[in-house]
Amino acid sequence: MNIEVMEKGPQFDMMSAFIASQAPNICKGKVRHTYIREQSISGANMMVVAYTAKKGTRSLRDSFNIHGFAFIKKTKSVMYIDVICGIGVGKRILHTIYNKARALNIKCITLSALPHVINFYRKEGFIHAESCKSETEIIRVIAEANKSLRFKDMTQAMSDKAFRKLLSVLVKYKLTSNKSCKNISSCSIDGYVMSKKL
Questions:
Q1: In CATH, what number is assigned to the domain containing residue 64?
Q2: How many Cα neighbours within 13 Å face the side chain of 189?
Q3: Number of folded domains in the chain?
């Protein structure tokens, strides 16, 4: 399997169009296909893609099998992971992003995590803080108390009483992607702010 970083350009455009057609299968319905197609791809200036390629024959063209991808908005000081999807390749994609950020001397990676993957990102060293600032003690304590919980989807995460306490505090402190949302249900659609200092 190949994992490749692509910056905006012809190769990025070709691969992102192919990913857009495959996204519903790759993301397993966990991320809205229209969001990926209409917002994430157009807003990204970098992507990481995990794929296998099969060389074609005279009668068949080359083919790609996409295993996962991430669309990223990169600035001079921060990499924002807008969307990441994949099965069994998420950590490899993240570590590719960390390595690329270090190579570019970028010290902060941010993202908006949907409720059911918050604990996955915490295990990767992400905390609930804007732009790699410090996490407040109350959030750290509640997050640590819930870090062993695993959820198959957003509905299951939002219905867990203990985990809802964390989500409520994140809403209260406006550590939400959508700053105008008012409750767990509306804030969970766009996710919760997390960041990792490299």
A1: 3.40.630.30
A2: 11
A3: 1
* pLDDT tens, N- to C-terminus, the chain (198 residues): 899 999 999 999 999 988 888 888 888 877 777 788 888 999 999 999 999 887 765 555 567 788 999 999 999 999 999 999 988 899 999 999 999 999 999 999 999 999 999 999 999 999 999 999 999 999 999 999 999 999 999 999 999 999 999 999 999 999 999 999 999 999 999 999 999 999
State pTM to two decimals: 0.90
Rounded CA separation 135/162 (Å):
19
Listed residue (32, 25, 197) closest to 98, CA to CA: 197
As a whole number of angstroms, the distance between CA 143 and CA 138 comes to 9
For residue 178, report the phi and psi dihedrals to the nearest 5 degrees: -95, 105
Domain of 12? 2-197
Give the DSSP H/E element, type plus range, for residue 126: none
